[in-house]
UniProtKB/TrEMBL annotation:
It is an enzyme of class 3 (hydrolase). Residues 1-324 form the GH10 domain. Its EC number is 3.2.1.8. It catalyses: Endohydrolysis of (1->4)-beta-D-xylosidic linkages in xylans. This is Beta-xylanase. Belongs to the glycosyl hydrolase 10 (cellulase F) family. Keywords: Carbohydrate metabolism, Glycosidase, Hydrolase, Polysaccharide degradation, Signal, Xylan degradation. One of its GO terms (biological process) is xylan catabolic process. One of its GO terms (molecular function) is endo-1,4-beta-xylanase activity. The lineage of its organism: Bacteria, Pseudomonadati, Pseudomonadota, Alphaproteobacteria, Hyphomicrobiales.
Amino acid sequence: AEGHGASRSGTVPLGCAIQAEYLDVDPAYRNAAVEYFDLIMPMNELKFGQIRPTRDSWNFEPADRLVEFALSHGRSTRGTCHVWWNSTPEWVDRIETAREAEAALIEHIERVGDRYRGKLIGWDVVNEVIANNPLSEGPLRRTAWLKKLGPRHIPIAFEATARADPDARLVINDYDLEFAGPRYDARREVMLTIVRQLQDRNVAVTGVGIQGHLYADRTIDKDALERFHRTLDGLGVGLLVTELDVIDWESVPGAEPQDATAHRLVADLLDGVFAFQAPESVIVWGVSDRYSWVSDVLPRPDGHPSRPLPLDRDMSPKRWMTLL
Ligand code: XIL
């Protein structure tokens, strides 16, 4: 691909997540994805709840379209995600027995994995399985899958993904793994424990995804990231940044201070992530400020428009794009 590539090494693919609903209607968005990124992945269209909203319906069309878009432009693509508390459909919630839940999970992963075999470089197999605060709740988030199957839903999901697509990279993905403080230390520790437990059971995991949703009022722990990366490498596991964007809650209004903050945070993250060695990829959670979950879910309290992504609303790159 002739996209930019992360400049730290010149060899790390730079990715973006795109959404089917904007692809056909917004040529500038479509062109920017191809112009600036080496890897283009579906943001939502491969999530369990989107693919199989009811027991009787499989909805592959939007994901097919995005995967085809990436491949037809010579870009690589990847999937997210089979297990996520926020994309588990109602019909799964209503399953009563462990046996039926396990069968449903395996059937889903095998069917989806089979359909995209050879097209996706890999999967975020499970997403956000770590408790929000492991110091008070930990270690795992209380999800429908945990309640029905216990922690073994994690190895079940990894094994099914590998069966359906033996060449797929197998990633465990989570948020709040980047920052300084006891809660974040605890989250990194839980992540390492999960990886070690999978390996103890001979379950393959090839990578840990750190989402990289950065916050203006938090500090990146560069040293902890370097140690984390080194420890994972010692386990034979890679590191990826999977969902980079900046949630700007500073009370400073205006585009320039927001972009300066974003620049500092992204520079710190990349310093930490690249300190030991280059990651597998760096992926941005969107393309441009025109469309982002941050404006909907975590808007600025002062009402100023969010500027979470490396391309502006008019698709011009911000200064921090040059860091990537
Ligand atoms: C978000 C998408 O950006 C939204 O479009 C969608 O409505 C909900 O999901 N952490 C994750 C992502 O792991 O999957 C989430 O993506 C953002 C937070």
